[in-house]
Specification:
19 strands; single chain; 226 residues; 6-stranded antiparallel beta sheet; Double-stranded beta-helix
Length: 226
């Protein structure tokens, strides 16, 4: 397949199939437009338990599969919020752990599974829930970025502390845990909440400049209660 990312504020990725039988997978409702010559099939993509796990991770229970019936057919997947779309070659770039809602679409050779945080504190207090998503296998996967992307290459032992809502994904070998903000004044007056995500290298970390939880909170505060 071939692809190109179009648009700036609300980007989309257009995928052109080179041969019949090539497939793309997305969560339910992820397709934006397509030409003729593409067949659609919907399933839980691995069974009911996997579907329920994806629901807990912020995705849809059912996955839509689009298969090319003819060469040259095209399909597009659009972002849901202003930001960017980033491609990851899973076979080359390795296995990634991503936050809920980051997955946009992928070749059907890419595996999307749920994974549990290694530490209970990361799950219960991390802000993104106890269940994350694991992207493995081979092929190209597209992640949705809120705002602009920032990519960090952490050296062995190098640490970066991030507001959890600004974390998109990180390589599997990156250590992920939650650190409590120190100091009573910092907790109640600092505006950053009680916990920060602590990521320890080596490995690649993908961050986003927009925290949708904070943005949604600001919008909600402006909505009249009556």
């Amino acid at each position: 397949m071939q692809y190109k990312i179009i648009g700036t504020t609300m980007p989309a990725v257009e995928v052109v199939f080179d041969a019949p039988g090539e497939k793309m997978t997305t969560q339910s409702g992820g397709m934006a437009w397509m030409t003729e010559g593409i067949n659609m099939n919907t399933s839980t993509n691995g069974g009911v338990l996997k579907g329920l796990g994806r629901m807990l991770a912020g995705e849809s229970m059912f996955m839509a599969h689009y298969e090319a019936a003819q060469a040259g057919s095209m399909i597009a997947f659009a972002s849901t919020v202003p930001g960017e779309i980033i491609p990851i070659d899973v076979g080359t770039d390795g296995t990634f752990i991503c936050q809920k809602g980051a997955f946009l679409c992928a070749q059907d050779t890419v595996k999307l599974d749920i994974t549990l945080s290694k530490k209970l504190s990361a799950g219960f207090f991390g802000g993104e829930g106890f269940i994350l998503q694991k992207i493995s296998g081979t092929g190209v996967c597209f992640l949705e970025i809120d705002g602009d992307k920032v990519v960090k290459e952490l050296a062995p032992g190098e640490v970066i502390k991030v507001d959890t809502g600004n974390v998109v994904a990180f390589e599997e070998q990156v250590k992920y845990e939650i650190e409590t903000v120190k100091g009573i004044k910092n907790i109640f007056l600092g505006g950053e909440g009680l916990f920060l995500t602590k990521l320890t290298g080596p490995g690649k970390v993908i961050l986003q400049t927009q925290n949708m939880n904070e943005f949604a909170g600001r919008i909600a505060a402006m909505i009249p209660s009556k």
